[in-house]
Write a structure and sequence with these properties.
By secondary structure, this protein is of the alpha+beta class. The chain has a single domain, classed as Nuclear Transport Factor 2, Chain: A (Roll). The chain contains 3 helices and 4 strands; from the N terminus they run H-H-H-E-E-E-E. Strands 1-2-3-4 form a 4-stranded antiparallel beta sheet, with helices on one face. The chain is globular and about 40 Å long. The protein binds zinc ion. Zinc ion binds next to helix 2.
Length: 131
């Protein structure tokens, strides 16, 4: 899972090496839920299932495989809101992607929890699902 270090980070950060690579490749712990969320987005772009599972809370982690290379092309991430309160946090974001040439957007409010200093993704809600 190594990539050229000076590339822009898929999550929108300036340089991959000093952005999400710290967490994905060097096992540093994200200090905030937003950093974790960004690194999980980047992991999706890399189809990095081990990272996604290790940052997914055990209570909601899927058993099936995730993030397979199903032709989804991730185009960009926009973090809209990050609200942290103690060991809980929510991050609202819009991720854009393409499947089979068609553009889509995922608007999600993700819930995170911190346990023993580590942030985990718990679940998310989709404010525009009924659109
Ligand atoms: Zn990043």
């Amino acid at each position: 899972m190594t990539q050229p270090k000076s590339i822009p980070c898929p999550c929108g950060g300036k340089i991959y090496d000093t952005c999400c690579a710290r967490f994905i490749e060097r096992n540093q712990l994200p200090g905030t839920a937003e950093e974790l969320m960004r690194s999980r987005y980047t992991a999706y772009t890399q189809h990095n299932e081990p990272y996604l599972k290790s940052t997914w809370h055990a209570s909601t982690r899927p058993h099936d495989s995730i993030a397979q290379d199903d032709g989804t092309k991730w185009l960009g991430l926009e973090v809209r809101k990050h609200i942290a309160a103690g060991d809980k946090a929510t991050v609202e974001f819009v991720a854009r992607y393409k499947v089979a040439g068609r553009a889509h957007r995922l608007h999600e409010i993700s819930n995170f929890v911190r346990e023993e200093g580590r942030w985990f993704y718990v679940d998310g809600s989709f404010p525009e699902k009924n659109k």
